[in-house]
Amino acid sequence: GAVVSQHPSRVICKSGTSVKIECRSLDFQATTMFWYRQFPKQSLMLMATSNEGSKATYEQGVEKDKFLINHASLTLSTLTVTSAHPEDSSFYICSALTGTAQNTEAFFGQGTRLTVV
Amino acid sequence: GENVEQHPSTLSVQEGDSAVIKCTYSDSASNYFPWYKQELGKRPQLIIDIRSNVGEKKDQRIAVTLNKTAKHFSLHITETQPEDSAVYFCAAGIPTFGRGTSLIVHP
After folding, report:
1. In this complex, do B99 and A42 lie within 8 Å of one another by their Cβ atoms?
2. Vertex A103, ends B32 and A24: CA angle to 5°?
3. Which position has the higher pLDDT, A27 or A89?
4. Average pLDDT of chain A to the nearest whole number
5. Which residue of chain B comes nearest to A108, CA vs CA?
6. CB nearest B100 (choices: A1, A43, A46)
7. What is the SS3 assignment for B82?
8. How far apart are CA A82 and CA A18, in angstroms?
9. Average pLDDT in the A32-56 region?
10. Which residues is B23 bridged to in the sheet?
11. DSSP code per residue over A51-86
12. At residue B46, does pLDDT exceed 70?
């Protein structure tokens, strides 16, 4: 299947700093990528939909100024957690769509474990 | 938007038994229903999917059924093995997921 690479896999940062997470589609072009957040023993909660060349669409309750998303190319989307706080500590995971409108499949990155201290 | 309900949240079975996980969805326009398996700290992996033009799909020990009229779909795992233990998520369309089912298979 298609490959989505997410980097870094783990990051520890100090409170108040910013962290950038990259999501790359390695062998296909992805006009749409999704960013999720997952707390322990919980489901994947959609944060935002990243569209290449346009502004991201954020889910209700997700602060767009805190979680900056950039999708500047067909193979790369980035999520920047700005002014991180301990409550931002979570597992962040991206996915990218591939295929046609009639046959679409989502592939996930490895996820990023963010710990804010 | 789409709303997906998944039950049960936890399912404990003995090795060799069958396991069934059920999901309902709200958007009648949804036409793609994937199931993912996620092991602790890892990415979700697609295990099977079904589209709205079929009612059932099977792949070895795993099967999925879809009832579009009732807007529900189910995952069936037969002859469960300890390595089937994981969290399973259903989804309706992309990208809305159910809450997940923690499947525990006891040897």
Report:
1. yes
2. 100
3. A89
4. 91
5. B43
6. A43
7. helix
8. 4
9. 90
10. B6, B73
11. ETTS--EEPTT--TTTEEEEEEETTEEEEEE-S--G
12. yes
Say which residue, A104 or B88, is predicted with more confidence.
B88
3-state secondary structure of A14: coil
> CB neighbours of A15 closer than 8 A, spacing ≥ 6?
A84, A85, A86, A116, A117
Using an 8 Å CB-CB cutoff, list chain B residues near A41.
102
- For B55-78, give the DSSP string: SEEEETTEEEEEETTTTEEEEEE-
Give the one of B34, B42, B89 whose C-beta lies nearest to A43's C-beta.
Answer: B89
CB proximity list for B16: less than 8 A, separation 6 or greater = B79, B80
Of B41, B95, B100, the CB nearest to A106: B95
For residues A89 and A10, what is the distance between their CA atoms, to the nearest angstrom?
11
Burial class (CB in 10 A: 0-12, 13-18, 19+), B25: buried
Q: Distance between the two ends of chain B, CA-based, in angstroms? A: 41
Tell me which chain B residues have a C-beta less than 8 angstroms from the C-beta of A105.
34, 46, 49
| Set of chain B residues whose Cβ sits within 8 Å of the Cβ of A49 | 95
Residue of chain A whose alpha carbon sits nearest to that of B99: A43
Instruction: Tell me the three state secondary structure of residue B84.
Output: helix
